[in-house]
Amino acid sequence: QVQLVESGGGLVQAGDSLRLSCAASGRTFNTYPMGWFRQAPGKEREFVAAHSWARGFTYYADYADSVKGRFTISRDDAKSTLYLQMNSLKPEDTAVYYCAASQRSGRATASSDYDYWGHGTQVTVSS
Questions:
Q1: What is the pLDDT of residue 55?
Q2: Which of 13, 29, 34, 121 minimizes the number of CB atoms within 10 Å of its CB?
Q3: How high is the pLDDT of residue 30?
Q4: How far is CA 73 from CA 43, 60, 126, in A?
Q5: What CA–CA distances, in Å, run from 61 to 3, 89, 126?
């Protein structure tokens, strides 16, 4: 049974940093895309960042425009863990953050590209 478990959320002030982690179990996603999405109250779930392996040891890191330059996605496949480093947090980053894993090849930035989802971790940024 596939499980994605997020951790690292919390309440911080604007300008602070947080690092989210997502531990995967039940199968290996080493060669598949993994990503982060978020959903704020009253809004639809939106793409935040995705990591996809390319040929050789290169990879693609895709980001939503709203987080470019502030968030960094990374992964440690030896630990089956995905990370999201979030710097310079803003109140508008407040949301539940979800980890997702895909079974498709190539890049994946749409919700429909992903097959497995975690339960989410709350990030609240106060002004």
A1: 78
A2: 13
A3: 83
A4: 23, 10, 23
A5: 23, 19, 28
Return contacts of 44-49, CB within 8 angstroms, 24+ apart: 45/98, 45/111, 47/109, 47/110, 47/111, 48/84, 48/97, 49/73, 49/84
Contact 123, 50 (CB under 8 A): no
Q: How many Cβ atoms are within 10 Å of 68's Cβ, its own excluded?
A: 10
Q: Which residues does 90 contact at the CB level (< 8 Å), separation at least 6?
A: 14, 125
What's the token pair of residue 75?
């992964």
Strands 71-76 and 95-101, bridge-based pairing? unpaired
Per-10-residue mean pLDDT, the chain, length 127? 95 98 91 95 97 85 97 95 98 98 92 96 97
Residue 21: enclosing H or E segment and its boundaries?
strand 18-25
- Contact assessment for residue 37 and residue 24, using Cβ atoms and an 8 Å cutoff: no
| Amino acid, res. 34 | M
